[in-house]
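re: ur question from yesterday

yeah so i grabbed the chain u mentioned. its 312 aa long if i counted rite. heres the sequnce exactly as i have it in my notes:
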Amino acid sequence: MKALSVDHLLGIKQLTEADVQLIFETADHFKEVINRPIKKVPSLRDITIANLFFENSTRTKLSFELAEKRLSADILNFSAAQSSVKKGETLVDTVNNILAMKVDIVVMRHPNPGAAQFLSKRVKACIINAGDGTHEHPSQALLDAYSLREKMGDLRGKKVAIVGDIRHSRVALSNIFALKLLGAEVKLCAPKSLLPKYSSALDVSVETDLMKTLKWCDAANMLRVQNERMDVSYFPTTREYALQYGLTMDKLKQLRKDIIILHPGPINRGVEVTTEVADSEYAIILDQVENGVAIRMAIIYLLASKLNNNIT
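ran it thru and got these structure tokens back, copy pasting raw so excuse formatting
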């Protein structure tokens, strides 16, 4: 059986193209499984997984949980709000106490960039990064790229735009790494205030005009404005942002070509996309949600296989 080159999923940057293709091939199999009448396989019945979410999450948490259940793993769910972290316990102590219960894999979302990497060097368990601050969100990037591959075939040479609040987005950075690894061309589009300072080091093109970007691209990933991460105002008003960077059917019709619209969620309808666009045939937002379960099943299965070569 083919194996991943990594023991943890900390970020896209650590993966090879062969790793990504293996995850996609495995997800193809699991997508067929989750569309059967009986959606469960006994693959991980001897594996225990702890979901540690130190930040709020709906889609990612539910998607990982469902993926784990579909693989028949035992699951522990941890919420920081009801934990000893509130009493001053360190992250390492918290995780080590959980691992003492014989946990094999930890899926963690944390507000601090690098938290998953930090933990992987200090505890004896496989770590899956479910988002660390504004750094990376590897499983989201993998499901986005997988969803595009499903619609467009090989991504080599395809043009993908990432539009919106790139400065505060962990999804954007992981998407850039994944898309470039698979040979796609990437363009960032946002007001200058929402572009990251390091964009020149990412080997991507940058544009502040949305219509120019839409005319260039084959697909556009529309990112949410992350007001919760903003300590100052990065644009005059939400209405002005929506007028300049919000995607409407009028703008799509001006293109005279079809492009694919993605969104990692949650959607601010009427800000980054209108309801009409979000619910249109251009959008593959619900495909992304379905594919998220298959991709996360693939990630968990492949990493668990490295823990236990007897997994079947």
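noticed a couple things. Residues 42 and 72 are 5 Å apart (CA to CA). also Residues 138-288 form a domain with the Rossmann fold fold (CATH 3.40.50.1370).
anyway ttyl
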